Amino acid sequence: MTNKKDVNAENQNQTYEAWFNANFKKCICGAVVLVVAAAVVIAGVMICKQKNSAAKARLLAADIENVESIIAESPDHADVAITRMRIGNELLTMKKWKEAREQFVKISDIADAAVFLRDSARLAAASCLEQLNDFDAAAKEFAAIEADNSASVQVRSEAGYNAGRMMLKSGKISEAEKILQNVAAMTGSSPWIGLSRNTLIAIKNGDFAVPAAKKGK
């Protein structure tokens, strides 16, 4: 006999997925990949402006198989974060979520990495958890970014909206409402603010109500 709680959770996730597919999925899908790709492009411009060196050349030539050994040769080089971002992006395209996340987490731990690289890495690392179906952990990481007042409104609103998405996937409607309200109250031109407001309307309209599980099912 299937546990009623499990059935409710399954129904909640199906309800969420149906609504999300009909509304904003196309807008959000690949958003993190696009952010990371943009970061790589900008990073490439930065690289071109820097003085050439043997270490730089090796980092630029690093691939998935040898990146760790090459970074170990010059762990403090300015291009380490850029290299990890590039490798992480390649792993994303291969759907190797766990391995990609490892690269992004390491970038976010580099204190002197460019702010946009660290922010992109934090968002991407949390997104990898979603792909690994660990919605609670993803929500926690996204929420931590939203609560970081040192981050830009664009970054915080994106993180907050995605934290709300993860909470809805886990059936935590009241928690999702709270963080989505935080984002909706933000000011700026970030699209995530509007998406949060629309999601709050959907919640109010009962779009995420969980159908009652039938007894004995």
General description of the model:
The chain has 217 residues and is an all-alpha fold. The protein has one domain: Tetratricopeptide repeat domain (Serine Threonine Protein Phosphatase 5, Tetratricopeptide repeat, Alpha Horseshoe), CATH 1.25.40.10. It is built from twelve helices and no strands. Helix 8 runs antiparallel to helix 9 (135-146). The longest helix is centred in the first third of the chain and has 19 residues, at 4-22.
How would you summarize what this structure contains?
This protein is mainly α and 217 residues long. The chain contains 12 helices and no strands.
Helix content: over 70%
CATH homologous superfamily descriptor: Tetratricopeptide repeat domain
List unreliable stretches of 5+ residues.
Answer: 25-31, 47-52, 210-217
CATH class: Mainly Alpha
Largest sheet composition = none
How many whole angstroms does the radius of gyration measure?
Answer: 20 Å
Q: What is the string of SSEs from the N terminus onward?
A: HHHHHHHHHHHH
By DSSP (H or I, 4+ residues per run), the number of helices equals 12
Give the DSSP E fraction (strand runs of 2 or more residues): under 5%
Total separate domains: 1
- Overall structural class, as computed from helix and strand content, comes to mainly alpha
List the keywords.
12 helices; 0% strand; Serine Threonine Protein Phosphatase 5, Tetratricopeptide repeat; mainly alpha
